[in-house]
Design goal:
This protein is mainly alpha-helical. It folds into 2 domains: 1-114, no CATH class; 117-164, no CATH class. The chain has helices at residues 9-29, 33-44, 48-54, 97-103, 105-113, 119-122, 128-131, 136-141, 150-155; strands at 69-70, 75-77, 90-91. The protein has a 3-stranded antiparallel sheet with strand order 1-2-3, with helices on one face.
Length: 164
């Protein structure tokens, strides 16, 4: 959970929205799909197919929408497994949380729908045993180059990943 260290009332409200996203995902697990649906629709303007993936742990691990990681340099990442050199959502030292959320809204929406690597998406890849169930591992294993990664090509994650 993020906590606001700033003085702006708007920053506190935005942090509350991020926290609400994490809490909204828990409403589904608590058997409250109506509340979950309303919060997910309000915060992310998700369509029905995106909402379906939002709460399905077999399709999506939750990186970037159920939780986020704030690194020591202020970089906001989808999860601790993502290295800053490959994928960030924005820098909270340089920009307000509201700006980061607005400027990265396409990344946040994408993260709600991306499927985790599976035997079907990975095919006969030699790295498949390392990547199953995690969207960060194939990024690290492939060092941002998805020319040999069936999952990376299928999901289109390369449009958000910086190759070092």
């Amino acid at each position: 959970m993020l906590q606001c260290a700033g003085r702006s009332r708007d920053e506190r409200r935005t942090v509350g929205a991020v926290t609400a996203v994490a809490l909204a995902s828990r409403f589904w697990g608590l058997g409250c799909p109506k509340i979950f649906h309303e919060v997910a629709t309000l915060l992310f303007h998700l369509d029905e197919s995106q909402i379906e993936n939002f709460h399905d742990p077999e399709k999506n691990c939750g990186a970037g929408w159920s939780s986020v990681t704030l690194g020591p340099t202020g970089e906001l990442r989808p999860c601790p497994m993502f290295e800053e050199r490959y994928l960030t959502l924005g820098n909270l030292v340089e920009h307000s949380l509201e700006d980061v959320l607005r400027d990265s809204s396409d990344r946040f929406r994408y993260l709600t729908t991306i499927e985790t690597p599976s035997p079907e998406s990975c095919g006969g890849c030699v790295n498949s045993s390392l990547c199953m169930g995690c969207i960060a591992r194939p990024v690290t294993v492939n060092r941002g180059d998805f020319s040999e990664c069936g999952w990376g090509r299928k999901t289109g994650i390369m449009r958000f990943v910086e190759a070092p």
